[in-house]
Every structure is written in C-alpha cells, then in structure tokens.
C-alpha cells in the first residue's frame, strides 16, 4: 500500500482489547489477593503487617528497647518495603497495638492508639511504638535461613516471604480483609487452647473435630463477651464457614426496688459509644420500654455501661429487647480464607493447624541445617587449630621462615594437609592461644561442637525428634504467654430443649386494649361468691382495659390471630410473668405486629395435627376453616391466615377437633346460628371463607363464636351489664349456614348488648373481665339455667362498669383463710 502509515520495519502486535482487559484485571486481582488483602496461612500476617514487624526488627525496636516514633517506623516501611499510603500503614500499625482488636497485640504502643468508643488514634508524629514479646516470637530464628527472602518492590533490598512464627498467629489474632471476589474473616482464639490443640494433633494425626473441640472450644475475643450457641462454631471449624452469635455480658444489680442492667463486656468489634447512642434513641422513640437512664461508667479497669430500669420493668424482657434491637447481640460471619502456596483457599480448623505444624517443621529443618553447617564450619576451624597446637614448634618455624603470608599459608596447607580456611585461622591466631588453658578451651569446644553436630544430624534423620522440638517450643510459648479463655460459650435454645427447664403450669394470659401482655399463675385468682366485686387483675391506665384473657400451660404454643387476619406464634413461657397487679409488657416487643394491628384471639395448642382445623369468625359473619397443619411452619414475621374484605375484621378463632359437630355464632343484638362443621368445609390458608350468618338488624355484627361436640352441651351467654344465663345447645335448632339465625338471649335495657359466649364445663369456672380491669371468678354451677328466649340472672356486679370479655378457667379450691383474704381484697377494691 502506497500510503501505509506504519513502518514495516517496526514490530507491530495486534492485541484483542477484551482479552487484554481480562488479563490486566486478573493480574490486578491476584496482586490484591496475594500482595495486600489476605493473610498467609503460615504466619497469619498480611504483607503490610509482616513488613511493619520486619522494619521494626531492622530498626532494633524490640520489646526491651526504647520506643520509637510511629512516623519513623511508618517511613521505613513505606521507603523500604511497602510503597503505599502512609495512612494505610499507620492504621495497620495502630490496630496491631489495640488490645480490644488483637487477642495478643504484636505492637506495644505508647500514646493515644484509639479506644473501643471508636476514637481514632493520635497522629503518627505523636505516638511511639515497639514490638511486643509475641512479635519477637514471630520473628525468632529469622536470621537462620528458616524462610525465603524475596526482593522488595524496587529490588534494592530483600524482605521475608513469610515469618518463622513460633505461634499460630492466624488463629490467635484472627484476620479480616476484602480482596477481589473474596473475603476473609477469621476470629481470634485463646493461645492456651491453640497450643493444647496442636499438641493433641501431634499425638494423634487422625484426630476428629469433636475430639479437638474438647480443648479448642471456640473463638476467644479480646473484648470477651459471650458466644451464644455452638452450631456456628462447629460449622466454621468443619467447613471454614459459619455464623457465630455474640452477646454482651451483663449482670443485674438492685437499686431502690429497681433493677439495673450493667454491661460488663461487649461483642467483638462493637463500638461502645455508638451502642449507647442507639439505646438512647430506641428509648426516646419508645421502641424499648422500661428504661429510665443510660450512662457510661467505664474506666481504665474495664467496661461498665449502666442501664437503669423503671420500677415496674422486668430486666429479662428489657434485656431480650436490647439483644434484639442493638449490637449487644451481633453475628460474626466466619470465613477462614488464607493464602497457601500463593493460592487463596478456605480451610477447616484441622487443616489450618496441620498447615502451621508443617510450617514449623520446615522452619526447624531449615534452622537445623543452618546450625549444622555453621557447626561443621566451626569444627573444621577448631580441628585446624588443634593440629597447629599439636605441632606448634613446626608451625612457628614454618611461619618464621616464610617470605609472606601467602607462602606461609601454602606451606601450612602442604605440610599439615590443612584447608585454606584452617590455614588462615592459624595465621590469625593470637599468641595468647598458645597457653595451656587456651589449648584446653579449644579441645573442649571441639568436643562440644562435634556433639552438637551429632545432635543436629540426628534431628534431621528423625521425624519424632523434630516433633519433640515443636512440642517443647509450643510449651515454652504457652508458659511465656498466659492466655486463658475470656469469652464464655453458652448453649442457645437450638442446643438444648428449654422446655425441659421450665415447669408446665397453668397460666392466665391477659392482653389489654393498649397491647400489654403478661402471664400470671391461675392459682393467683381465688374463687369468689357469685356477684362479688373481684380482685384487680391488672393495673391499667385510665384509657386502657383488658380486652381478652386465656388459660393455657407454659409449654403450649400460642397462636395470635389479629383483626387483619394475620397469625403469629409464641411459646407461653416466653411471655413475661408478672404480678397480679402488674400491667404487663407491650406485646409489640414479643410479636412483630404491624402499626394499629390488634390481637383478637390467642389460641393455645401443643401440636399442629392434620386431624384438627383452625376456624376463623369475622365481624361481617364470614366463617373459614383451614387444616391446622397449614400453620405449623412458624415464622417470626407471621403469615396471612385469612383473606378479609376491606370492611371486615376477625372477631375470634378457635381450633376444631374431630369430635366437634357444629359451629355456633352469636351477634351483638342477641342473635345466633348453629350449623354443622361440614357446612364450612376446609379450604386453603390464603382464602376468604364462606358466609356463616346474615344480620337481621342494621348495625349488628358478630361478637363471639364457639364449637359444640353435641346438643347436650350448654352455652353460657353474658351481656355487658353483667347478666348471663346457661342454655342447653339443643334449644338452638340446627340450621344451614348463611341464615339469619334465632334469638340467643333476650336483650333489654337491663342486660345491655351481648358480650360473648362460652361452652359450659362444670369442672371449670367462669372468668369475667370488666372495663376497669377487674377479674371475677364465678362457679359455673352457681349460674341459673334458662331458656333460649330469656335474659338470665346477674353474674357479675358491674357497679356502673361493663363486662368486656368472658372466658373459662380451671377450678382452684380455696382455704377458709384464703377466702377471708379475698373478702378483704374485695373490700379494698370497693
């Protein structure tokens, strides 16, 4: 081509852009992975940490040396080995000196090196540093050809590729880092436990993880705290990945009838100041109730964060809410990723320990070879000196007659069969070495050197001797650094059956209009005469009252059905137990309700049998029945239990067993309908249901429902002015669902509107709740039976109040003394 713009004499290479970018990015990725972000599995150090320690070693800043300015150390590191930003190098140096970041720090800092409150360290020109004893253990034998040296970044000097590391630093101090496409997060451990584990591994090469974990129980964080549960530890140790739940360590103190929660230890890497701010914010926003004051009383002796509670607050519930809402409970995601043979790899615990032992074996072999060569060289010299001393007159005569040093050297080599090194040593020998004492010293030294050579030679030929040296050095390290466990490991609810520790007792569970819940032992409420005033069941605000209460056992599961058709689960024993007059705790702290969502039914169950179903009754008369097994998959956030129309809401719900024959629904205006269970056939969980009752009067709505086994059962109806009656179920004729029903109770101005119904059981008592929070226990047998179209008798003396809910509960026999106490309480309540 005539207009060729390229010179044919030049070497032109065609490069594919896509391939070039791939290659360049891969080179960059590997540079970050190997050269910056990830630790070496042998010494547990990233390049920057290794270079800091090596530079400090060069400067002679040992554990017994005077401190040197951090700026000087950082300058040496940057100038000689690590051509990156000074801030990054100084930040690494600072972390190596922080006792709350490192299980055993490798840098001894003097000055402000930051705090657990998140305060940054002072500028490097103000702080000083030197190595710790542990750092010296990492560098020990570095000068004995124990590791390879590589050129530094400009090839003007050399630096170690890895440190000899007499301690398993990767597991001791842990490591964290983010590379390209991968990350590492290794927790710190107790040195005592690591050494015991390594010794156990040396004794048994085929050790199992279970056996190893009898000594290495889990991570040991420098901030102590609590590890909650062992499953994450086992996963991490077996696979290299796991999630470890950490908790703050607390204790409870008493002050003027109030509980005080004191935080003594924090989860690893938790910022104390940020935690306190978060707690204060949650209290201000009323997301956590019961806290009156939070203050930090920490000092040089340790952490002490004081959380003062209000007089009626329960410390265990507040504490659980703090764990749930703050970093007092945090998760450490373990990824045991490290570099081995220039490649990143995820290791199990046993693999990491074996790799460390292999590294130590290599170091000992190389050190032994170095010392053997040095001993042989010295023995060679001493043998020459001994020959010279044995022939001293001839040697002196030969040297005197030689013209110069070269001639003398050659003469010695020729006459006595010496090497050049031996000849030079003889020529350099001082006349004082010719004394008898000096001769003896040389002979003794030669004997010692020859014995040392024999010992070193035996080490290289024996695997057992090498392992014996490893054991001795590990025990020496353990005795030098006392490092017992400080992080407590406890079981969580997944590790043990918590119900085995809790007695199965009958409880009254109450919930107020404003959403306060509590449980109180049923025996607290003693039986009273019909028409009595009753005991105060709960202390409420002026605008609050008890909306519902239920009787269940502590081991039961409570299903919470809300007006919006959502269903939530909670074990009874997880509800805070309160006194008879305590107002309880906000249910939103136990169940994750939506804003303005109200609980309409609390249903206890001890199983989710497929032979049972869950029946829902709505305000607009809709009935829905779904197999109970569809609600067995418990979720914290709850599930949709029934689809509702826009103007409808759930009134109640109940479990239907195989012996149930009919469903019974009542309305506010005293109407009711009874129809067969099969009329409302089982349908799916996410569905609307079918019409159960149609309303005769405008403004009427469903207020209650029940399930009946047969027509011989009796239904107890109660109106809001305390009037009630017992009526046999066969007086209510069986109808098809969807009808307007029949009269359930004759309502008048004396009775008021119907509140609800319960199925009569003469082995049980009636519990009636008034709008002021009074709970009255009435013997079912004391309530008169009456026909369907009647009003009934006074069941509760409301004294100007209204009955807001009814339920049944087990009978409790009272002694005369107790009844006397009840009458006194009744008088007080009047």
TrEMBL record:
<dbReference type="InterPro" id="IPR035516">
    <property type="entry name" value="Gyrase/topoIV_suA_C"/>
</dbReference>
<keyword id="KW-0963">Cytoplasm</keyword>
<dbReference type="GO" id="GO:0005737">
    <property type="term" value="C:cytoplasm"/>
</dbReference>
<dbReference type="GO" id="GO:0003677">
    <property type="term" value="F:DNA binding"/>
</dbReference>
<feature type="active site" description="O-(5'-phospho-DNA)-tyrosine intermediate">
    <location>
        <position position="126"/>
    </location>
</feature>
<dbReference type="GO" id="GO:0009330">
    <property type="term" value="C:DNA topoisomerase type II (double strand cut, ATP-hydrolyzing) complex"/>
</dbReference>
<comment type="subunit">
    <text>Heterotetramer, composed of two GyrA and two GyrB chains. In the heterotetramer, GyrA contains the active site tyrosine that forms a transient covalent intermediate with DNA, while GyrB binds cofactors and catalyzes ATP hydrolysis.</text>
</comment>
<dbReference type="InterPro" id="IPR006691">
    <property type="entry name" value="GyrA/parC_rep"/>
</dbReference>
<dbReference type="GO" id="GO:0006265">
    <property type="term" value="P:DNA topological change"/>
</dbReference>
<dbReference type="InterPro" id="IPR013758">
    <property type="entry name" value="Topo_IIA_A/C_ab"/>
</dbReference>
<keyword id="KW-0413">Isomerase</keyword>
<dbReference type="InterPro" id="IPR013757">
    <property type="entry name" value="Topo_IIA_A_a_sf"/>
</dbReference>
<dbReference type="GO" id="GO:0005694">
    <property type="term" value="C:chromosome"/>
</dbReference>
<dbReference type="GO" id="GO:0005524">
    <property type="term" value="F:ATP binding"/>
</dbReference>
<dbReference type="InterPro" id="IPR002205">
    <property type="entry name" value="Topo_IIA_dom_A"/>
</dbReference>
<dbReference type="GO" id="GO:0034335">
    <property type="term" value="F:DNA negative supercoiling activity"/>
</dbReference>
<comment type="subunit">
    <text>Heterotetramer composed of ParC and ParE.</text>
</comment>
<comment type="function">
    <text>A type II topoisomerase that negatively supercoils closed circular double-stranded (ds) DNA in an ATP-dependent manner to modulate DNA topology and maintain chromosomes in an underwound state. Negative supercoiling favors strand separation, and DNA replication, transcription, recombination and repair, all of which involve strand separation. Also able to catalyze the interconversion of other topological isomers of dsDNA rings, including catenanes and knotted rings. Type II topoisomerases break and join 2 DNA strands simultaneously in an ATP-dependent manner.</text>
</comment>
<comment type="similarity">
    <text>Belongs to the type II topoisomerase GyrA/ParC subunit family.</text>
</comment>
<dbReference type="GO" id="GO:0006261">
    <property type="term" value="P:DNA-templated DNA replication"/>
</dbReference>
<dbReference type="InterPro" id="IPR050220">
    <property type="entry name" value="Type_II_DNA_Topoisomerases"/>
</dbReference>
<dbReference type="Pfam" id="PF00521">
    <property type="entry name" value="DNA_topoisoIV"/>
</dbReference>
<feature type="domain" description="Topo IIA-type catalytic">
    <location>
        <begin position="38"/>
        <end position="501"/>
    </location>
</feature>
<protein>
    <recommendedName>
        <fullName>DNA gyrase subunit A</fullName>
        <ecNumber>5.6.2.2</ecNumber>
    </recommendedName>
</protein>
<keyword id="KW-0547">Nucleotide-binding</keyword>
<dbReference type="Pfam" id="PF03989">
    <property type="entry name" value="DNA_gyraseA_C"/>
</dbReference>
<feature type="short sequence motif" description="GyrA-box">
    <location>
        <begin position="528"/>
        <end position="534"/>
    </location>
</feature>
<dbReference type="GO" id="GO:0046677">
    <property type="term" value="P:response to antibiotic"/>
</dbReference>
<dbReference type="InterPro" id="IPR005743">
    <property type="entry name" value="GyrA"/>
</dbReference>
<keyword id="KW-0799">Topoisomerase</keyword>
<keyword id="KW-0046">Antibiotic resistance</keyword>
<keyword id="KW-0238">DNA-binding</keyword>
<keyword id="KW-0067">ATP-binding</keyword>
<dbReference type="InterPro" id="IPR013760">
    <property type="entry name" value="Topo_IIA-like_dom_sf"/>
</dbReference>
